[in-house]
Amino acid sequence: MTLRAPWAALASDGLAGGVQPSEPERGTSRRRGSLGGRLANAALTHLPLAIVILDADSRPAFWNEQAAALFGTPRPMGADTPSLTGLLAGIANLTFQQRDRIIAFAATHIAAGDRVEPESWLRIALGRDRRITLRICGIGARHWMLVVDDGTMALAAGRGDPARTGGDAWLDPLTGLANRRHFNQTLHGLAENAAPGSRPTLLMIDLDRFKLVNDTFGPPVGDALLCLVAQRLRRETREEDLLARLGGDEFVILLTNGEWAEALAARVIVILSRPFLVEGHIAHIGASVGIARFPEHGSSADDLTRHADLALYDAKSAGGGAWRIFDPTIAPEATARRNLETDLRKAVSLGELSIAYQARFDVGQQALTGFAAAPHWNHPIRGAVPPERFVALAEDVGCIAALAARALKAACDQAARWPASLTVAMTVSRRQLADGERLFDAVQTALQASGLAPDRLELEFAETTLPAGADVLHRLRALGVRIVMDGFGPGRTILDPSPSFPFHKIRIDRRFVATPLGDRDVALTARATAADPSITATADWMETAEQEVLLDPDGRIRIQDILIGRPIQAASIDALLHRHAVALDNGSTSR
Amino acid sequence: MKKTSISGTLYRLIYCSRNVILQAAPDAILEDEVRAILAAARRRNKADNVTGALLFTASGFAQVLEGMRDVVERTFDRINGDPRHADVTVLSFTPTERRSFPDWPVGFSGQTSPDIPDPLAHLLADATGAGPRATTGSDVLRLLERVVQREDDWVAA
User: Fold this and answer.
1) Residue of A nearest to B70 (CA)
2) Over the stretch A529-570, which tens digit does the pLDDT of each residue have?
3) How close, in Å, is residue A271 to chain B by CA atoms?
4) Do A277 and B2 touch (CB under 8 A)?
5) How far apart are CA A134 and CA B143, in angstroms?
6) Which residue in the set B2, B89, B93 is minimally distant from A277, CB to CB?
């Protein structure tokens, strides 16, 4: 800060609450006013903020020393006061668009008078690592004070390097890009003060497969990768566009004018799909981009953000590596799904899902044999969300593995506290089976942590999910876990003459025998079962005595267990066990 | 979890990519573009103590870069964004005991004549497509060791 511009007082109606500005540095004979007034003037001079007083026509009437330094313009001399445009032109790296935004910002507030919200302000990025914040408020009746905060001034005033003194509130500390706060402020400013005809556009960017890299190589590599992503994105954006990291692997580009948004989106996908070398590893990721354009896709910052996010979601649903422009016609449906997804992710990560247990009852022995455990989601507003709805969604959005691992662990912990004759059964989804390694790990971890005997855990696989994971089924069986084919019937996988699926038990699909079981079906099932005599066929859909009669009582198809009662929470199990105490005793003596 | 290697280890990177100079700029003269690429690479690599070799044909590029790990990573990311190539495929990125091209900032072999078979044509098809025979880093390394000459003479020519 080499420029030491003397400051001047021109306003006639008393600025800053009646203080008469003077020229203390010059020490002229015009100095006057009270001690308080002089101190106020001195304070204004040394304030590490640039201050410009504007009149009702946005003409600068006065600016302080910091402002003179920022604009590179000495104090106003008589009638030759430059216009605000002229002053702003002195700010290094300020683009024309940014200059126009500041002028529009000032004009809007001046025109609005006292109706302007005091918190209203504008944030401008100068080049890559410098930002200024502008704020305007009315002083007196006919003047407005434009305050410009510039990080370098705080430095000059001895506040120290912001990075060393707790970081910059506007920067993402990892990548050095703008942060969410910076982005939100800029977007609000842009949406409120958009020049007519300009079309600010949002590109919401989400990395594909980032989590995989992070999980495989560890968070330090993940962080380094995010920095490389930031660097590649930086090369693709212009100075006047805002590039921010919103958190995690989510980035956003705010184009002041979005005519080339589609081309940029395509380019972003291309450059982020190229391999990365990071900390000695080769990483392959990709990107999905959602685009929303002002004003047709949203006239407020919030709408625009939400709609860009929905478009991104759309791109993600298409399998990633794609960009989408917000489509208003699909908005309501997409919003509902998006909200459910957000809630679900939150619930999974916060461990808000619980397990519901449904008792299994052995018809022949008249005894409780165990419980079928299923994830249960009781949302504070939505109420109970049916498992078929959220489990499918969890599969789509890729949080099924985390959900299932938690559920397995909780169910095993619970079952380990039950009498040893009781089993716990869980359904394994197709997506889980496809990631066999992870499934195996989750099962092993849950068993070890709980101490549950492996043969008390039954894993149920729908027939339709097969034969994706024959290999992992064998490994699970070797672990001692009981493998159950659920919903046998429609696909008849088991009729394969060389059974490669190591099942202990087959549950017959309700539809398969909902009508009286024909001889053919019995024969088919019996033949299949006979291929491995250790396989038991059961039908837990049997809820009435009539249906029971339909099965051959002496054949291999036995009704071993049925589900009774409603699913209950773990806490209610003790009471139920107590009620069935006799049956339990019977059950254990008969073994 | 793999241990993250120290940034100071010597690494060798081998990658190939498709030449899109003429798609990006139909009027470009290939040789001039390559001269420009080489001159810039040579200047930078010398400063960064990066050595290596570049094979350039009408269909693509194959390059070996050797240097300290973080420098190679940085160099690659800069090269990666170059609009003059596409379908960048990393064939190998591993620590190495010694440099294969110790004296050359950018060893170079150019081939723009349509009469000679393009050695990169099948390589690129293999590496970037889902061909049955995947091209390995050592294939490319051998190829480069065979054909690459010092670029100084060529640039000066």
Assistant:
1) A279
2) 444 444 454 544 444 333 332 333 333 344 445 566 677 777
3) 7
4) no
5) 60
6) B93
- Cα–Cα dist A309/A322, whole Å: 14
Rounded (10°) angle between helices A387-397 and A331-350: 90
Which single residue is written with the structure tokens 């003077």? Answer: A22
Q: What is the pLDDT of residue A149?
A: 79
B23: contact with A, CB 8 A cutoff: no
Contact B90, A275 (CB under 8 A): yes
Whether residue A221 lies within 8 A of chain B, CB to CB, comes out as yes
- The residue with tokens 């679900």 is A344
Nearest CB neighbour to B81, from listed A217, A220, A232:
A232
Looking up tokens 């079981």 gives A517
Find where tokens 């960048």 sit. B88
| Beta strands A482-488; A505-508: pairing state | parallel
Give A-chain residues touching B90 at CB under 8 angstroms.
275, 277, 282
Residues of B in contact with A279 (CB under 8 A): 4-5, 7, 69, 73
**Could you tell me if A280 and A294 are in contact, meaning their C-beta atoms sit under 8 angstroms apart?**
no
3 state SS for A73-142? CCCCCHHHCCCHHHHHCCCCCCCHHHHHHHHHHHHHHHHHHHHCCCCCEEEEEECCCEEEEEEEEEECCC
Cβ separation A281–B2 shorter than 8 A: yes
Q: Is the pTM of this model over 0.80?
A: no
DSSP-derived pairing of the beta strands A354-362 and A367-379: antiparallel
Contact, B56 vs B63, CB < 8 A?
A: no
3-state secondary structure of A228: helix
Q: Is B69 touching A (CB cutoff 8 A)?
A: yes
B80 contact residues in A (CB cutoff 8 A): 232, 271, 274-275
CB contact under 8 A, A218 and B11: no
For B73, the enclosing helix (H) or strand (E) is helix B69-80
Asked whether the beta carbons of residue B81 and residue A278 sit closer than 8 angstroms, the reply is no
B2 CB neighbours in chain A (<8 A) are 216-218, 281
A317-376, pLDDT tens digit by residue?
Answer: 777 899 999 988 877 777 777 788 888 888 877 777 888 888 877 666 677 888 889 888
Query: Measured between CB atoms, does B72 come within 8 Å of chain A?
Result: yes
**In the block, which residue shows the tokens 């107590």?**
A578
Is B35 within 8 Å of chain A by CB? Answer: no
Among the residues of A170-218, which ranges form H helices?
180-192, 210-217
Comparing CA positions, the residue from B117, B12, B120, B151 lying closest to residue B56 is: B120
Quote the DSSP letter at residue A426: E
Distance of CA A323 to the CA centre of its chain: 18
The pair of structure tokens assigned to A409 is 């662990």
For residues A358 and A363, what is the distance between their CA atoms, to the nearest angstrom?
Answer: 15
Question: If DSSP states are collapsed to H, E and C, what string results for A483-511?
Answer: EEEEEECCCCHHHCCCCCCCCCEEEECCH
